[in-house]
Amino acid sequence: MVGFSGFANGVVFWLNLALLITMQTYFGQFFSYSLPSEEVASIIGVLVNSICFLFMGFSPPAYAIPSGYQWLYTIVPHRFALSNLVSIVFGQCSDMPTWDEASQSYTNVGSELGCQPMANSPVTVGHITLKEYAEQYIGMNYGDLWRNFGIVIAWIVGFRILGLLSLRYVNHQKR
To answer: Which of 59, 71, 96, 98 is most buried per CB count within 10 Å?
Structure first.
């Protein structure tokens, strides 16, 4: 099923996707509670989401983000959910294949998707597996899975608290 190596990975993928949708919902609720109108909340929401999508480490890849913007890459909440989504599918390889210089191919390629060689990789990248590419170029490691889940849950709680504080203390009524 779409590159998953088992039912458990499908469930973890679904759980991560559900948490991402919940985070996005609370993100939007916070903006709608704290800003004066629906239009302003929509515009600010699109702006902030665009910035988050730009700096979550996929395009441009994490290694290519300029050093002046690394702090954005570090704090963007979407990065952690995307990292989980990518690493669940492409980040697992129990026994990495070895590159054979004589035959110019990998030997001992496992059945997991992360063990597969990357086809048509750029010349600058050379020969690389999908797991290595995900880790080295877009900074998404399977080993960070549970830490990333915790960070996404912390962002969900943070957006929920900010939304509740906005409901309590922000008043946009005109008298």
So the answer is: 96
